[in-house]
Every structure is written in structure tokens, then in C-alpha cells.
Write a structure and sequence with these properties.
The complex is a heterodimer.
Chain A (H helix, E strand, L loop, with lengths): L11 E6 L2 E6 L3 H10 L4 E2 L6 E8 L11 E5 L2 E6 L2 E6 L4 E7 L2 H18 L2 E11 L2 E6 L6 H6 L6 E4 L2 E7 L2 E5 L15 E12 L4 E4 L2 H11 E2 L5 H17 L2 E6 L11
Parallel strand pairs in A: 2-4, 4-8, 10-14, 14-17
Antiparallel strand pairs in A: 1-2, 1-3, 5-6, 6-7, 7-8, 9-10, 9-11, 9-12, 9-16, 12-13, 13-14, 15-17
Helix pairs in contact in A: 4-5
Chain B lengths: L5 E4 L3 E6 L2 E6 L5 E4 L1 H9 L1 E5 H12 L4 H17 L3 E4 L15
Antiparallel strand pairs in B: 1-5, 1-6, 2-3, 3-4
């Protein structure tokens, strides 16, 4: 298990999701403690992380978090932001900064976006999907808002370990694809468990009158995956990388349409 | 006829054949295209050094029971549509650099 009280000096906290450790530093001790509490379970005791961000807290709370996300790269410098925060990250030094007010919504979005970029360079992606581990295998449940991700996560049996109800972390490893737990929660407002397992199946969710599982053809599966990948970067090279990752996932992980009645019996055929 | 237009795959896209379908994603705007069988033949043959007419004659007419003149017309229309989406390059000269400016030569 992770150590809950890290030994990091100063007002810093290392948050490790899916093998990527990100150090967040701020001069505000109270906000730092808020981060530790919020990302509990994903906080690492390490002094050094692969990536280092300095959070510059501002007083402004008026900027709109509903503005579009914009992610661009100029040489080695990435810029990403939304109405409520602006971040920069230099991929040569692995250092960056995030300018935002002292809230969790902005830092959570900044971390998600950062992971979308990093994962794209490493053969993975964040997927708009719930995921859980059962019998040592990970199962992903994707679909647009309202498809039932939170519902199926909340119906998971006691022997299932919830990785997330909202944003699944998918990464290629030597023997296929692995799903990692994330602190990026949806309607359940509860972080996933910080564990991982090889992905056994990806389900495209639809609610219907009866439980039914139908395999999807390769091209339909790729379309389903691509529709639900979180990716914002205006970067042709990374767009191509994400496309190839989606195709690669579909070629080695079964993708099925799962039509389900919203009750716990749906889990009888999963795992 | 297509007036000896040379065609080349754009390097600004990512392509993958899955389940018999060619899927292509534009790196510019993330648009996803799925090519049918004939479009896939044109795409796969478009190396910048052969003309559309040669592709029609050697591949499409050889594999499908089609009228050569109709096939050439349809291929030109298709190639121009692919070019408009930025996934194919068209030129009256051989295309040696698939990073060249994307466009159509009517």
C-alpha cells in the first residue's frame, strides 16, 4: 500500500497515477494538504518525481471552467489550459507550472490533460470509461455520458475492485494492455483503487431491456474507442500515435457491446 | 480519363487496415475515415510514382468487373474527395515527397 503521509520536504506532494509520478509544489501549505487528502491512495513518498510542476495560486475565481480545453506544443514547450487554469510544461526539463486558484477542480483537470499527453507518447491513453478488476482481470466500460458507466460501477459486486467510475488509464505493456486505477472520479465522487491488471475486455455500454453481450467488429470497435478517448492536443504526431494505440488495443483486446438492465445481474456475465 | 494524375498517400495521416477496412485518421483535425474496397486499393497503390490511370487499369479493372472509362471517372472523383480531406496528394508530376502541400489537380 502507498504511504499516506509522504516525507516530501516543503509544500509538495507526489501523485503517481499509472506509473507516472508528478510532483506538485505550492507555497500554500493548506492547499498542499488539500491535495494530499484529495489524492490519498495515489500519493507517493518519493522525494523526486519524473515530472515537476509548480502551482502558482491566484485569487481569481471568475474564469470559466466550462471554456474549451486548449493544448498546444511549440518545440519542447507544451501549453495547456482552460478558462480556470493555464499550465506550461517543458518536455526537455520535465518541469512546468500551473496557474490557478486554490481549488481541486482545476488541478484535477490539469493532471488529466497532462496524462493524456504523456500517455500518447508512451502508447496509452485516458478513456472515458469505468473500469474494475475481477479475478485478476480488468474490465472497461465505455460510452458517452448517460450510457451507464457510473451505474455499472455502482453495481459492481464485492469481489470487484473499482479502478474508476469515470476516466480509465490504459497503457501498453509488454504483454498487452493494462488498466490502472485513477483518482479521477465521476459521479461516484470516489477515487479508484491504486492497482492495475491486464485488460480482459472492453465493453461499449448501452442500457436496454435485457442483458446481452455482442462482439464488435474491428472498425466499429476502433470508432467506439476513439470516440471516448480523452485527447485535446493539437499535435498531428500525437494524434497519429493515439490512433495507432486505439487500433493496437482493438487488435489484442476483445471489444463488445454490452446491453444491460441496470441491476446487479449484469455482473454475472463479467469476469 | 484522369489525365495521368499521380497520387500519393499523405504523411499527415495515420492509417491501419482492420477487419478488411482501411481506417485513416487525419493528423490535422482528428477526422476518422473508413475506406471501402476500391478506395483502399487506390490508397494502398498511391505511392506517388504511379498514375491513377495505371492503378485503375492494373488493380481495379483487373479485380472488378467494371467498365474502364467509368472506373477511371469514379477513381478521379474519389481521389479528389480524398485530396480535399487531406489524406491523398494529387499532382500532374510524380510525387517524391508525401509531405508536399496537400491539394487536388483538376
Amino acid at each position: 500500500m502507498n504511504q499516506l503521509t509522504p516525507s516530501l520536504g516543503g509544500n509538495g506532494v507526489v501523485i503517481k497515477v499509472g506509473e507516472l509520478a508528478v510532483k506538485l509544489q505550492t507555497i500554500d501549505a493548506e492547499y498542499c494538504q488539500t491535495l494530499r487528502n484529495h489524492y490519498d491512495g495515489f500519493v507517493e513518498a518519493a522525494e523526486h518525481a519524473e515530472f515537476d510542476f509548480n502551482i502558482e495560486l491566484t485569487d481569481s475565481r471568475t474564469n470559466n471552467p466550462d471554456d474549451d480545453v486548449k493544448v498546444t506544443r511549440r518545440s519542447t514547450l507544451w501549453s495547456f489550459g482552460r478558462g480556470d487554469f493555464q499550465a506550461e510544461w517543458n518536455m526537455a526539463s520535465n518541469r512546468g507550472s500551473i496557474r490557478q486558484s486554490a481549488n481541486l477542480y482545476s488541478i484535477d483537470a490539469a493532471l488529466r490533460i497532462f496524462h493524456t499527453v504523456m500517455l500518447a507518447t508512451r502508447g496509452g491513453f485516458l478513456l472515458h470509461a469505468a473500469s474494475a478488476i475481477r479475478n485478476g482481470k480488468a474490465f472497461l466500460f465505455t460510452g458517452p455520458s448517460g450510457a451507464g458507466k457510473t451505474t455499472i460501477a455502482s453495481l459492481a459486486p464485492a469481489d470487484a475492485t473499482l479502478l474508476t467510475d469515470e476516466v480509465s488509464y490504459v497503457r501498453k505493456q509488454s504483454e498487452g494492455y493494462t488498466a490502472f486505477g485513477t483518482p479521477f472520479a465521476g459521479e461516484l465522487a470516489k477515487a479508484g483503487e491504486n492497482v492495475s491488471a491486464p485488460i480482459s475486455c472492453l465493453y461499449l455500454l448501452t442500457q436496454g431491456p435485457a442483458n446481452r453481450i455482442e462482439p464488435l467488429g474491428a472498425s466499429d470497435a476502433v470508432r467506439a474507442v476513439l470516440r471516448n478517448i480523452l485527447f485535446f492536443a493539437e499535435d498531428p504526431e500525437l494524434v497519429r500515435s493515439v490512433f495507432q494505440s486505439a487500433c493496437q488495443l482493438v487488435s489484442c483486446v476483445p471489444v463488445c457491446r454490452l446491453t444491460f438492465l441496470p441491476d446487479s445481474r449484469v455482473w454475472e456475465s463479467i469476469g | 480519363m484522369s489525365q495521368n494524375l499521380y497520387v500519393a498517400r499523405s504523411s499527415a495521416v495515420a492509417a491501419r487496415k482492420l477487419g478488411g477496412e482501411m481506417m485513416i485518421m487525419s493528423g490535422r483535425d482528428s477526422t476518422l475515415f473508413t475506406l471501402d474496397e476500391v478506395a483502399t486499393i487506390i490508397w494502398e497503390s498511391a505511392n506517388g510514382l504511379v498514375t491513377l490511370d495505371e492503378i485503375v487499369e492494373s488493380r481495379i479493372c483487373a479485380e472488378f468487373d467494371v467498365d474502364p472509362a467509368s472506373a477511371a471517372r469514379d477513381a478521379k472523383t474519389l481521389a479528389e474527395a480524398l485530396a480535399q480531406h487531406g489524406i491523398l496528394l494529387i499532382s500532374r508530376e510524380p510525387i517524391l515527397d508525401s509531405n508536399a502541400r496537400i491539394g487536388s489537380a483538376k
